[in-house]
């Protein structure tokens, strides 16, 4: 049976706080309270700029299994001028081209088939389809990023995906053969409308592929630094199946991916299509239940573990300071912001943070306005220790740092616990 839920795209007060943004249920429990933190991707123009702080509190819905935080920032504020380009990481580029190569191997695409990607960024994934002569259309709200994709020849609609945009796309292009939505579901405040949009675009042949880091990995991998205001939702197989079902979609397969420290790839199709559901779905849903992912007691234990990771990092920074070591950070992204603002780092404990993005350099990160510098400036600055914040690509970064820094510079990661990064 398909349960229809009516929502509008308007702001729903309390969503993510006491109303579930997946099923509109009222059964949310507190999983991890990180206190008041600034918006993670907001960088400061000068080191003494005042920054606003907002509650960051992960809650989980007992009814549908969705993790979530309350909305304090609109997607327009984040994505219209988004500074992150997927092509900057070779790990992501390889992951995307491998995925497309596999799809082309397993499926026959006819000339009328076309592929839609939601949040297509700079076209790094879709251009692999174009190379094989398959029509691909991207949706990317950040205008500056969409323009880069268009220059590569990827037709890109610069807008947010919604049920109303889905209707327009359907009218103009018909049903896509494949819809790809990688690392976008977390950023959608009106999740129900988004899933309705997916459902509208699903014809008899359409398959939807959704990649998203898993809430289970936040628990087992202590990946609490992936919790930030711009990530409204934290998916589980349980929640994807439930929310899909409420909107006419059936979860028929789940894959485990190593990327981003453990992601899932969920495969959905119209629930009216009679076909077998892969064993992977039931297996992962059972695992999530066995992990006590939807049990508040498990998260009380977790909160204590998170506190001790943060305490250890702060003690380590204090020790380095006392020993006169020069600690730098690498990767001025949201993960760094969540960690640094959670421990309320003292002045001068971290000299600067290097980042490859030209748009971030010469800006400052809260708290205390830590300067963002270029990797080149890091190499000439003679650090003794560098903390790599994007742990999900730590090997790639460590290889880059190691080839440009002296052999006695020590490289570190905070997650899942403070450890030195040694290349084999
Ligand atoms: Zn729910």
Q: Uncertain segments of ≥5 residues (pLDDT<50)?
A: 1-10
Coarse structural class: alpha/beta
Report mean pLDDT, rounded to a whole number.
90
Strand order of the largest sheet: 6-5-4-7-8-11-10
Describe the structure.
Helix content is 32%, strand content 21%. The chain has 13 helices and 18 strands. It has helices at residues 75-79, 90-106, 127-131, 143-151, 163-173, 191-200, 215-220, 237-246, 279-290, 296-322, 334-343, 375-380, 394-402, and strands at residues 28-37, 54-61, 67-68, 114-118, 135-139, 155-157, 178-182, 207-213, 233-234, 249-257, 263-270, 327-330, 352-354, 364-365, 370-373, 385-388, 410-413, 419-420. The strands form 3 sheets. It has a 7-stranded mixed beta sheet. It has a 7-stranded mixed beta sheet with strand order 14-15-13-12-16-17-18. The chain has a 4-stranded antiparallel beta sheet with strand order 1-2-3-9. Strand 4, helix 3 and strand 5 (135-139) form a beta-alpha-beta unit. The model is unreliable at 1-10 (pLDDT under 50). The structure holds zinc ion.
List the helices and strands and how they pair.
Elements: E1 28-37, E2 54-61, E3 67-68, H1 75-79, H2 90-106, E4 114-118, H3 127-131, E5 135-139, H4 143-151, E6 155-157, H5 163-173, E7 178-182, H6 191-200, E8 207-213, H7 215-220, E9 233-234, H8 237-246, E10 249-257, E11 263-270, H9 279-290, H10 296-322, E12 327-330, H11 334-343, E13 352-354, E14 364-365, E15 370-373, H12 375-380, E16 385-388, H13 394-402, E17 410-413, E18 419-420
Parallel strand pairs: 4-5, 4-7, 5-6, 7-8, 12-13, 12-16, 13-15, 16-17
Antiparallel strand pairs: 1-2, 2-3, 3-9, 8-11, 10-11, 14-15, 17-18
Helix pairs in contact: 5-6
């Amino acid at each position: 049976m398909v349960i229809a839920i009516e929502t509008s795209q308007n702001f729903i007060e309390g969503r993510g706080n006491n109303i579930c943004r997946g099923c509109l249920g009222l059964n949310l429990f507190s999983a991890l309270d990180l206190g008041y933190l600034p918006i993670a991707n907001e960088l400061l123009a000068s080191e003494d700029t005042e920054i606003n702080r907002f509650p960051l509190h992960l809650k989980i819905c007992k009814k549908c299994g969705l993790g979530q935080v309350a909305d304090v920032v609109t997607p327009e504020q984040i994505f219209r001028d988004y500074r992150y380009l997927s092509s900057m990481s070779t790990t992501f580029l390889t992951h995307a081209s491998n995925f497309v190569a596999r799809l082309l191997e397993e499926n026959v695409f006819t000339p009328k088939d076309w592929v839609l990607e939601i949040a297509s960024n700079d076209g790094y994934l879709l251009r692999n389809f174009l190379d094989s002569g398959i029509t691909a259309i991207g949706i990317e709200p950040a205008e500056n990023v969409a323009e880069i994709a268009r220059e590569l020849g990827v037709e890109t609609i610069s807008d947010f995906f919604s049920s109303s945009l889905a209707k327009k796309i359907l009218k103009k292009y018909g049903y896509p053969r494949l819809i790809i939505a990688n690392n976008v579901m977390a950023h959608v405040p009106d999740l129900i409308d988004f899933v309705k949009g997916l459902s509208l675009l699903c014809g008899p042949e359409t398959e939807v592929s959704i990649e998203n880091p898993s809430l289970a990995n936040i628990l087992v991998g202590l990946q609490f630094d992936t919790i930030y205001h711009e990530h409204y939702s934290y998916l589980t197989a349980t929640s994807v199946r439930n929310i899909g079902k409420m909107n006419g979609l059936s979860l028929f397969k789940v894959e485990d991916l190593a990327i981003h420290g453990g992601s899932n790839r969920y495969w959905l199709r119209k629930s009216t299509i009679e076909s077998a559901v892969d064993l992977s779905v039931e297996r992962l849903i059972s695992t999530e239940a066995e992990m006590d992912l939807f049990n508040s007691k498990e998260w009380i234990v977790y909160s204590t573990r998170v506190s001790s990771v943060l305490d250890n990092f702060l003690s380590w920074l204090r020790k380095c300071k006392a020993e006169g070591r020069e600690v730098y950070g690498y990767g001025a992204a949201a993960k760094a912001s969540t960690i640094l603002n959670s421990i309320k780092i003292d002045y001068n404990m971290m000299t600067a943070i290097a980042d490859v993005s030209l748009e971030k350099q010469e800006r400052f990160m809260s708290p205390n306005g830590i300067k963002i510098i270029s990797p080149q400036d890091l190499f000439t600055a003679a650090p003794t220790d560098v903390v790599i914040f994007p742990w999900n690509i730590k090997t790639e970064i460590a290889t880059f740092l190691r080839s440009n820094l002296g052999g006695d510079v020590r490289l570190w990661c905070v997650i899942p616990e403070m450890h030195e990064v040694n290349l084999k």
